TrEMBL record:
It comes from Paraburkholderia polaris. One of its GO terms (molecular function) is transmembrane transporter activity. The chain crosses the membrane at residues 16-33, 53-72, 84-107, 113-131, 143-164, 202-222, 234-252, 272-292, 304-328, 335-356, 368-390, 411-429, 481-501. Its main location: membrane. Belongs to the major facilitator superfamily. TCR/Tet family. PROSITE patterns: MFS, SUGAR_TRANSPORT_1. This is MFS transporter. InterPro entries: MFS, MFS_dom, MFS_trans_sf, Sugar_transporter_CS, Tet-R_TetA/multi-R_MdtG-like. GO terms for cellular component: membrane. Resistance to tetracycline by an active tetracycline efflux. This is an energy-dependent process that decreases the accumulation of the antibiotic in whole cells. This protein functions as a metal-tetracycline/H(+) antiporter.
Length: 525
């Protein structure tokens, strides 16, 4: 139940104006998602800073976005969907302007963290507001248009960022971000009605704080590990703190009157299976969407525009494949289609891993396209699956948990992939250094981090004996192994999805065999 401000009935043109305004405002989220990855090498070159600070350009946004999403939904119910959406859009625009004027890399990282919080407010407020503004078939059409907006943003973000970065500098991309967001604000917010949840009791602050702390400590440990050493007191302390915060989060959610995440939903096996889908697409698609621009620009020397064009092969399938996947459900279950898509993506990654680094860019088009097609199949189905595998009265909480798993999982998989790439690069450099005079351990570790983030000039300065060709070769070998690891994870995820979601039962039913850790009714203590 919601309380909606009383107003005259909407005309079709007014509703369309609101919908267009919200979609334009939301467009900055997917544009920024892939676009920032294309601009990141130029940001690092201009502002300098450590490899860890460079990694936070992407990870700070993903981390704060994922950890704030559920809290933002609660705030929208409590203080008003329109208000939260409007605050989110304005904050996103202000942080974009702050990044455009950034004097240091640390300032960019700080603004990106705030931008992730703003993105969570925008998405939570927009989704809840649309649900109140539209009913029945019109609501389905509105959310379909919102989904299409995300597809357009994912497809065009790298291309737009590449063009702006190459033509006007990386700061221009964030200025355009701000302009787009404020345009959507001007169109959508004035006519949008305010709505609240009268039963909202407030935010689960202890749960939100412990969840955010666990993600932050874990991500920081992954990013800092290759440089500080995995057995260093700092890294051990960070991972220990992350485990402690996660345990505290589970305990808090089990005992909270209105928990941020109702963990008892994990007693539904098919709901557990659905959570594997965003994690799988994070490994086979999102990671590449964010890591490949570094390779294309920093390692292979392509321009930002060329990198954006190359990324289009990966992202363009998101414009049409999700719709195709929904059409295919007439003949096959969503679980089978999703598992098949993951296998297709794995085949594309395996093909991509076999292409020589000096091959023409055209050679990458088809394997990247296949990866995008494969990832697009589950991408178009998993939102619907997340609410179809639990009772209808728990669909709202299921959506919240799924969205949190999706965004937070994407941030964690990016950090994991970055750590693996840095470790593998370090091992490759160690082999290459065996034929040269000994160098300090710190220099080798820092050089590996520089190479992994696409900063070859600084890596050469740290290890001048190797030279740029050998460093690039070390990166290429490490990247191939990373792709093979991602292939294995994606195929394993396909088996999990097929096992949990391959069949479609008539009703959603819990089981008492769920993990005791998650508690909930019927769980074994």
């Amino acid at each position: 139940m919601s309380i909606v401000d009383v107003a005259a009935p909407r005309s079709a043109s007014q509703q369309m104006l609101i919908l267009v305004g919200i979609c334009i405002a939301v467009l900055v989220l997917p544009l920024n998602f892939g676009g920032a990855a294309v601009s990141a090498p130029a940001i690092g070159t201009t502002l300098g800073g450590s490899p860890v600070a460079a990694n936070w350009i992407l990870n700070a946004f993903m981390l704060s976005f994922g950890s704030s999403l559920m809290a933002s939904g609660a705030l929208a119910d409590l203080f008003g969907r329109k208000r939260v959406f409007a605050i989110g859009v304005v904050l996103f625009a202000l942080t974009s302007l702050g990044i455009a004027a950034a004097p240091t890399l640390l300032w960019v990282d700080f603004q990106r963290a705030l931008q992730g919080i703003a993105a969570a407010l925008v998405l939570a407020g927009a989704s809840a507001a649309l649900a109140q503004e539209f009913d029945g078939h019109e609501r389905a059409r509105a959310f379909s248009m919102l989904g299409t907006t995300f597809g357009i943003g994912l497809a065009l973000g790298p291309l737009l960022a590449g063009f702006l970065t190459e033509t006007f500098g990386w700061r221009s991309f964030f200025l355009v971000d701000a302009a787009i967001g404020l345009s959507g604000f001007a169109l959508g917010v004035p006519k949008l009605r305010e709505s609240y949840d009268p039963n909202a009791t407030g935010l689960d602050w202890p749960g939100a704080a412990s969840f955010t702390a666990a993600l932050t400590l874990f991500t920081f440990g992954l990013l800092q590990g290759p440089e500080s050493g995995w057995s260093s007191p700092l890294i051990i302390g960070l991972f220990s703190g992350a485990v402690a915060m996660f345990i505290a989060f589970v305990w808090i959610e089990k005992h909270a009157f209105r928990p941020m995440l109702d963990l008892s939903l994990f007693r539904y096996p098919r709901f557990v299976g659905v959570q594997a889908l965003p994690l799988a697409t994070a490994f086979c698609y999102v990671t590449l969407l964010l890591v490949l621009p570094t390779r294309f620009i920093g390692i292979e020397g392509h321009s930002a525009i060329d990198a954006g064009l190359m990324m289009l092969s990966l992202s363009a399938p998101m414009l049409f494949v999700p719709i195709t996947a929904a059409f295919l459900t007439r003949w096959m279950s969503a679980g089978v289609i999703s598992a098949a898509g993951l296998v297709i993506a794995a085949v594309g990654m395996l093909w991509f891993s076999g292409i020589a680094p000096d091959a023409p860019s055209d050679a990458l088009t088809l394997p990247l396209f296949i990866i995008g097609v494969g990832a697009g199949l589950p991408w178009g189905l998993m939102d619907g699956l997340s609410v179809s595998v639990v009772p209808k009265e728990r669909a709202g909480m299921a959506t919240g948990i799924f969205s949190t798993t999706r965004v937070a999982g994407e941030g964690m998989t990016l950090a994991i992939a970055g750590a693996i790439l840095a470790v593998l690069t370090r091992l490759r450099l160690s082999d290459a250094l065996a034929a040269f005079p000994p160098v300090s351990r710190d220099a080798a570790a820092q050089a590996a981090q520089r190479v992994a983030t696409g900063d070859l000039p600084h890596a050469v300065a740290l290890l001048p004996a190797l030279g740029q060709p050998i460093l690039a070769q070390a990166y290429d070998g490490a990247f191939r192994i990373l792709l093979h690891i991602l292939v294995a994870i994606t195929l394993a995820s396909a088996l999990v999805v097929l096992g949990f979601l391959g069949r479609t039962p008539s009703t959603a039913s819990p089981t008492d065999t769920g993990p005791a850790l998650l508690g909930g009714e019927g769980a074994v203590d």
